[in-house]
């Protein structure tokens, strides 16, 4: 068994192919709506994966992106770009200069981080005064219960999503197809309060619904997401009063 699924070639290839082929009616619109104007700015992408967000950001006029990811397998899917600096490193320990970035972006990576409290303080240091942090995580309701599956009735209809030990921060182990992922569950309040403690001003906390087009194209998935949100997206700024 591969102890870290993000180092498993088959799992990573499937993840990247799926990300690149499926329309995104939830996460990308939510993140784009929260990002500040980044023209000519320096961005740090934590848990950058195959670098697709980094590529999109430079295409939209960002001056440079520092892309951090610990997976050398993810890196093989990253197309080298002169404005993207790739750092194969662990978010928990990576050492970056103070006040170096106008914005930190992170897309579905912080639920893999054990010491989010420490990360919040380190991120605050890395951002310039007036800069922003925008990130998404899998919604804590999604993996509060380690089974991670809907309760179904005798006909297979989803009747409810089980929630258990919600307030208990703890690892949740996912195993399947010969790989293992460790997600660090914490309640929504922790995601917000650790940022406030670090000094950030919270600008938005979003549990994104599908877009109108998404509701038309994927009504079943949209309905499920409305019953139990898939994602939590937060924007926090350094030192800008709301
Ligand atoms: C769900 S993927 C998201 C990738 C990318 N942000 C995207 O939008 O497709 C999570 C990524 O976080 C990375 N990751 C998880 N824990 C990490 C850590 N401690 N340090 C660096 N990268 C990490 C994984 O290697 C993986 O590429």
Q: For the report, how would you describe the main beta sheet?
A: 7 strands, mixed
Report the bound ligands by name, code or SMILES: S-adenosylmethionine
Mean pLDDT: 95
User: How many strands appear in the DSSP assignment?
Assistant: 11
Helix-strand string:
HHEHEHEEHEHEEEEHEHHE
Ends distance: 48 Å
Query: Strand portion, in percent?
Result: 25-35%
- Tell me the CATH superfamily: Vaccinia Virus protein VP39
Residue ranges: pLDDT <50 for 5 or more in a row? none
Secondary-structure-derived class:
alpha/beta
Helix content: 25-40%
Number of domains: 1
User: Within the largest sheet, what's the order of strands?
Assistant: 3-2-1-4-5-11-10
3D architecture notes:
- It is a single chain.
- The chain has 242 residues and is of the alpha/beta class.
- The protein has nine helices and eleven strands.
- The protein has helices at 9-21, 27-34, 52-59, 72-75, 116-126, 140-143, 188-198, 212-217, 219-227; strands at residues 42-46, 64-69, 84-88, 101-107, 127-138, 151-152, 158-160, 170-176, 179-185, 200-206, 231-238.
- The strands form three sheets. It has a seven-stranded mixed sheet with strand order 3-2-1-4-5-11-10, with helices on both faces. Strands 6-7 form a two-stranded antiparallel ribbon.
- The chain is globular, with a radius of gyration of 18 Å.
Supply the key terms.
9 helices, alpha/beta, Rossmann fold, 242 residues, binds S-adenosylmethionine, single chain, seven-stranded mixed beta sheet, globular
Précis, in short:
With 242 residues, this protein is an alpha/beta fold. The chain contains nine helices and eleven strands. It has one domain: Rossmann fold (3-Layer(aba) Sandwich).
């Amino acid at each position: 068994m591969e102890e870290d699924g993000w180092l498993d070639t088959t799992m990573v290839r499937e993840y990247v192919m799926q990300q690149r082929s499926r329309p995104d009616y939830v996460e990308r619109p939510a993140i784009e709506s929260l990002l500040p104007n980044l023209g000519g700015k320096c961005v740090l992408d934590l848990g950058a994966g195959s670098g697709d967000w980094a590529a999109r950001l430079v295409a939209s006029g960002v001056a440079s992106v520092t892309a951090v990811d610990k997976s050398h397998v993810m890196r093989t899917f990253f197309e080298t770009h002169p404005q993207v600096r790739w750092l194969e490193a662990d978010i928990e320990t990576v050492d970056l200069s103070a006040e170096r970035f106008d914005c930190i972006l992170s897309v579905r990576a912080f639920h893999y981080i054990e010491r989010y409290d420490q990360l919040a303080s380190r991120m605050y240091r890395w951002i310039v005064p007036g800069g922003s942090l925008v990130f998404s995580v899998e919604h804590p309701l999604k993996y509060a219960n380690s089974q991670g599956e809907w309760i179904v009735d005798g006909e297979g209809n989803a009747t409810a999503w089980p929630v258990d030990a919600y307030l208990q921060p703890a690892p949740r182990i996912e195993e399947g197809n010969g790989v293992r992922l460790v997600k660090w569950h914490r309640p929504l309040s922790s995601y917000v309060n650790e940022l406030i403690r670090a000094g950030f001003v919270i600008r938005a906390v979003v549990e994104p619904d599908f877009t109108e087009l998404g509701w038309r194209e994927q009504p079943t998935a949209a309905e499920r997401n409305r019953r139990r949100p898939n994602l939590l997206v937060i924007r926090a700024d350094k030192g800008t009063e709301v």
